[in-house]
Amino acid sequence: MDFALTDQQEAIRDAIAKICEGFPDAYWLKKDHDGGFPHDFHKALADAGWLGICVPEAYGGSGLGITEAAIMMRTIAESGAGMSGASAVHINVFGLNPVVVFGTEEQRKRMLPPMVEGREKACFAVTEPNTGLNTTQLKTRAVAKNDRYIVNGQKVWISTAQVAHKILLLARTTPLEDVRSPTHGLSLFYTDFDRKKIKVHEIEKMGRKVVDSNELFFEDFEIPMEDRIGEEGKGFQYILEGMNPERILIAAEAVGLGKLALSRATEYAKTRTVFNRPIGKNQGIQHPLAVNWVELEAAWLMVMSAAWQYDKGMPCGAAANAAKYLAGEAGFSACEQAVMTHGGFGYAKEFHVERYLREVLIPRIAPVSPQLALSFIAEKVLGLAKSY
User: Fold this and answer.
1) Is 244 left (phi over 0), alpha (psi -120 to 50) or beta?
2) Other residues' Cβ atoms within 10 Å of the Cβ of residue 385
3) How confident is the model over 373-385, as a mean pLDDT?
4) What is the pLDDT at residue 1?
5) What is the mean pLDDT of residues 185-198?
């Protein structure tokens, strides 16, 4: 068992860090104030070939694993970009995995290269306002009519819809009352984002202003049959293919953001003098930061374990949920402690740590809540009764 990064993995980390150096604190501070998608950051990663890190080489990607992708996403967050930078490219890394695994050869050749090259951006539309995490109860309908599907319904918390060219959409093609299991009858589509048929309402939120979150309203939105991924009615099984990688990557981002916050807090504790001594000489400052380091290191080991299991083709649901839980909690604690270490200055935007605290709530809450992650462990690992 070897816990060290390989030479290739170290090279990935260093290459990503080098790109991120071109987007310093001042860049993200201005973006946090002004808003607007970080197109130049997205382009820099695309031009260097990193957006398709997990896409097979045959379609323009690097053909690497989720382990390498996790290292990449942690590095982006840890660079100072936080969730603002990570979320700008997050869907590129895992989002089209169902196309890679379940799409036809024609679909792979048509759909994957434009996103790998950065020519197209996509959004991922699953969550609905009245179902939340209860995905099997989705109400958005896609009704087959001649050579296309007609979609009507509503989605919420859809990131990057303001700038998306494409949409990965999960919708119900068979009414719930007509299927044997609620997981059946959902279909997955990857198609053009038609703004004439999709109304996009941006949601004002507390953090990550640069990457928009939206509510979508579909009114007779048409999808060609050739844009359905896999078989009709099996979309729920297809998106499961991307759920564990998403948990692993969001966990890596949370660790990166937590490490960033910890480094800023540590540096401040070394240089800030109160009562004629550096505040970092006090155990009341030292010990909470030391706990943050311990928790983040433990979370990172869980992230790497989950990524290794996924890349080996092993069942990794428990590890992925554990990684997401540990990293979300550890990242949040580190960001909160960074603000507290700075005292009143932690509340000032110029010290950056208040942004980290706002942004770290994303991986703590999403894509699965801490409570549902624990429920998964309780039910699937410990064999306890389903509690919800």
Assistant:
1) alpha
2) 6
3) 98
4) 76
5) 97
Task: Please state the three-class secondary structure of 45-107 as a single string.
Answer: HHHCCCCCCCCCHHHCCCCCCHHHHHHHHHHHHHHHHHHHHHHHHHHHHHCCHHHHHHCCHHH
Q: For residue 384, what is the DSSP state?
A: P
Please give the C-alpha separations between residue 36 and each of 88, 118, 208, 300, 333, in angstroms, as whole numbers.
11, 17, 10, 31, 28
Q: Which two tokens stand for residue 176?
A: 């719930």
CA dihedral 315, 321, 326, 327 (to 10 degrees): 90
Q: Which of 242, 245, 241 is nearest to 323 (CA)?
A: 245
> 158: exposed, middle or buried (C-beta count within 10 Å: 0-12, 13-18, 19+)?
buried
CATH number of 237-381: 3.40.190.80, 1.10.10.60, 3.30.70.1150, 1.20.140.10?
1.20.140.10
Closest CA to 362 of 90, 18, 79, 53: 90
Task: Quote the CA–CA distance of 355 and 268 in Å, as a whole number.
Answer: 16
As a CATH number, domain 122-235 is 2.40.110.10
Q: Over 80: is that where the pLDDT of 84 sits?
A: yes
Tens of pLDDT, residues 330-347: 999 999 999 999 999 999
Q: At what angle do helices 39-47 and 82-94 cross, to 10 degrees?
A: 50
Alpha carbon of residue 383 to chain centroid: 29
Q: Which two tokens stand for residue 98?
A: 């169902």
Fold of 7-116: Butyryl-Coa Dehydrogenase, subunit A; domain 1 (1.10.540)
Q: How confident is the model at residue 241 (pLDDT cuts 50, 70, 90)?
A: confident
* Half-sphere exposure at residue 257, Cβ-oriented, CA atoms within 13 angstroms: 36
Q: What is the pLDDT of residue 378?
A: 98
pLDDT digits (tens, 9 = 90+) for 102-142: 999 999 999 999 999 999 999 999 999 999 888 999 999 99
Domain spans in the chain, listed from the N-terminal domain onward: 7-116, 122-235, 237-381
pLDDT, tens digit (0-9, with 9 covering 90-100), for 257-314: 999 999 999 999 999 999 999 999 999 999 999 999 999 999 999 999 999 999 999 9
